Amino acid sequence: MGKMLKKPAASSGSTMKTTGTAGLAVCRAALEEVPVGQVVTKKELALMAFGHPGQGQLAQIGKASAALAEGKVKGWWRIVNSGTPALQSGREAEQKRRLEEEGASLDFPVKQEPDSLLHACRRDPTALPPFLSTIFECVEIPPTGKHTHTLVYLHGRKFIGSYYLKQKHFFAGPFASCLRVVLPTASLVGGQMLTEWFSEWPPTPRSLAPGRQKVADILAREVAKLGDAGTVFLGGSSQGCILGLDAFLRSPHATSVASSG
User: How far is CA 218 from CA 114, 182, 185, 188, 247, in A?
Assistant: First the structure.
């Protein structure tokens, strides 16, 4: 396996600069993926739209959801709060009526909560609807030329792999046309729709084990595809960098460590 790479110069923790009309368009496009009869929390919509529910992204979702409701854009009523109450302030009656007309289950997003959309929405991560479960799948950025090298890149805490589909310039370069970028997503934690590679600090062998095995399986598969461990690289940001270093140093394909970040 090739070198362990540090995160790109542009930090994955930076706020995505998508504001105004552009931000509204991104949020509206994500909302269109929510089927009739389903609801989505603002945090979930931020994950769908931006790949990261940071404060900046959540602020944009808040402004967009209000604008969509005020503009009577179809589907605005499917956006709910993850706190209490779940329904949008000042629009509770209309929102509840529209959701009931669509056949939305009043207890669908709620885990161990009373059967009402008036209460907090808590997803069961083991029973996500397809429109949400797909955003946590492993994705990739294909090479623009002949594929000769692969980079497996691990995101930071609270991110998902598809965040980088919206930030492809992170992996651009004069010799990058041959590079395929594989972007896995960490496991969800509880009902918070929170992704993390490990849950303890400092990380322990027990908390690192699930993520380490996932990365090891991906690396083995990618090495088998190219037939040369020297053409497969591993990188990461934040938690992903920590796990990446752990997995890299334990990998039977490891050769040398360049840097970490």
Answer: 41, 9, 12, 18, 11
Beta bridge pairs of residue 151: 181, 233
DSSP string across 96-141: HHHHHHTT--TTTT-SSS-SSTTS-----TTS--HHHHGGGS-EEE
Closest CA to 142 of 169, 172, 182: 182
For 30, residues 6+ apart whose C-beta sits below 8 A from its C-beta are: 45, 48, 49
CA atoms within a 13 Å half-sphere pointing along the CA-CB vector of 170: 28
Chain-centre distance for alpha carbon 241 = 16
Is 20-123 in the same CATH topology as 4-11+133-250?
A: no
Task: State residue 260's pLDDT score.
Answer: 39
CATH no., domain 20-123:
1.10.10.10
CATH placement of domain 4-11+133-250: 3.40.50.1820
Neighbours of 191 (CB within 10 A): 19
Tell me, what's the pLDDT at 123? 76
Q: Hey, where are the domains in the chain?
A: 4-11+133-250, 20-123
Task: Look at 131 and 1; give whichever has higher pLDDT.
Answer: 131
Q: Is the pLDDT of residue 106 over 70?
A: no
